[in-house]
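Example 3.2
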Amino acid sequence: MSDLCLPKSFSKVRAQINNYFLWRYVREEHRAINGVASHLCFNLTVDDHGYLSFSHSNKVDKFEMVKEAHRNINLGGRTKPAVYMSFDMSEVYNYVNNPRKLISFEDKGYPHIGMFYLAGLVDREVDFMEVKTTLLELSSFYLRFEGGSVEEIAS
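Structure, written as tokens:
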């Protein structure tokens, strides 16, 4: 596992993780026509406190990771069925930040990881849309049904 995407402030997290997969619940209003996700799921809201929230899981199986993310993310009961997105933090960091640094990740109290947009990115519409599109392309999507069964969704 490469440490390219983790700043030195991640030293405590680095000791706790065995993979770089991050998980985020996709709100219903952020789902595309195909039921998966639209670029809107990467927009910041007032509730986001300046960053997008993700959850990490050390489970080995992605289906078990979804179940753990479901337990870790407080959704207030609006999860039947729930769509979760996942991407490899290292892959995203290295791809999106080439040739210039546009995003960063910070420990927000493990297993909570925050993704920040840098360098006024949100104000540059075309660049921001390109980053959100790239994030969607690098993501996988999973559906968690009532009762806990999970399946991967073709994106």
